[in-house]
Amino acid sequence: MNAAARKIQRIYLTLTLGNTLAASFIWGINTLFLLDAGLSNLEAFAANAFFTAGMVLFEVPTGVVADGWGRRVSFLLGTATLAAATYLYYLLWQLSAPFWAWAVVSVLLGLGFTFFSGAVEAWLVDALRFSGYEGGLETVLGRGLMVSGVAMLAGSVAGGVIAQATNLGVPFLLRVGVLLVMFAVAFWLMRDVGFTPERSTHPLQATRAVLNASIENGLKHPPVRYVMLAAPFSSGVGIYVFYALQPYLLELYGDPRAYSVAGLAAALVAGAQVLGGWLAPRLRSLVRKRTTVLILSSAVSALLLVVLGFTREFWVALALLALWALVASAGTPVRQAYLNDMIPSKQRATVLSFDSLMGSSGGVVVQPVLGRAADVYGYPASVAIGGIIELIAVPFLLASRRQHPRADLASASTAADSAQS
């Protein structure tokens, strides 16, 4: 990695660290926060579903913003929107607001995150290639996942401990503060490199053109399409399980106000991300095809969730949680590299946003369904049902593999050439 590429990597890791730290302050206590505000399990996970619905609604438009106005502009809009929406969440908690208000603000939270999804990853890949980096994308993306895991570990533990020492609202205020700092950092450090935004005096026409090109290189490209179609099942279940584990583990622990235990659950996921980011390029080197890693990761994750659903011992559940997160995390950089090596630069952010949309759409349906299952049958049964749903992703990944794309085997540079042709 040359000096220019190292600089790009440092900026990427800095942005990842700050954003994840800000977000993770509430990850360990978010469900408890909603329940403390007076929502039922169904309403709490329905609020989360409105959050993912916001991501579905705004993913493609914000991806077009990133491709048409610049990835830096998209990032700055994301920090500002997310900070404002998080503060509104805090106010709703203080006011014990009705469910409809939570639904509206949850959609705004989703809007904030969509400005990030696709934009940061697209900025990284284009800037690295412009700088002359010819290594595998798994290596850099894996480091990003490791940094994200460290930030999540620190933020989630701190959020749980601070909530227990003060109240459930303080971690939300901490998130707002860190996001404002990240706005200043990105404004100073982030520049669009290796990519020139195509601004137009006719924004609707430009939006239609970018969207059509993105569909052509996304859903109409079979190996990409099948990976996207797998996302609703794996991502939807993953979102539910992460948030359901907070009350589930407290239930097993026997103390509903032990918020630090909920933070520990998020911290375990974070630690698994660090190890998974380190393992990803090494696992990739052991197999011929990237899809081998993706298929095994999805199948083993699903089976672990089924086993977790039958567990009644707190420490056994923690161990299974850590293993589930490790398996899922190890496949994430490989999946990112696989997709990026099949997407042209000019539509990269929009296609990646569309991929995120597909995952979020699964969350819109899966979270209320499994939340209702938790109300009726309990958290263990809902987690096991989630594992069965995630298995549906495996046939789609197999279908992508059967298309024999060059990105499944090729080096980063070869695949990049293939994506541009």
Total strand count, please? 0
- Taking all Cα atoms into account, the compactness measure Rg is 20 Å
Approximately what portion of the residues adopt beta-strand conformation?
under 5%
SS-based class: mainly alpha
Distance between the termini: 25 Å
User: Which bin fits the share of residues in helices?
Assistant: over 70%
Largest sheet: none
Oligomer: single chain
Query: What sequence of helices (H) and strands (E) makes up the elements?
Result: HHHHHHHHHHHHHHHHH
Shape: globular
Give the averaged pLDDT, no decimals.
Answer: 85
Work out the helix count: 17
Residue stretches low in confidence (pLDDT < 50, at least 5 long) are 411-421
Kindly list the characteristics that best describe this protein:
mainly alpha; 17 helices; 421 residues
Can you characterise this structure?
- The chain has 421 residues and is an all-alpha fold.
- 81% of the residues lie in helices and 0% in strands.
- The protein contains 17 helices and no strands.
- Helix 3 crosses helix 9.
- Residues 411-421 have low confidence and may be disordered.
Write the layout of secondary structure elements.
Elements: H1 3-24, H2 30-36, H3 41-69, H4 71-95, H5 99-114, H6 119-130, H7 137-165, H8 170-189, H9 203-217, H10 222-253, H11 259-286, H12 290-309, H13 314-340, H14 348-377, H15 379-390, H16 393-401, H17 412-420
Helix pairs in contact: 1-6, 1-7, 1-8, 3-4, 3-5, 3-9, 3-14, 4-5, 4-6, 4-8, 6-14, 7-11, 7-13, 9-14, 10-11, 10-13, 10-14, 10-15, 10-16, 11-13, 12-13, 12-15, 12-16, 14-15
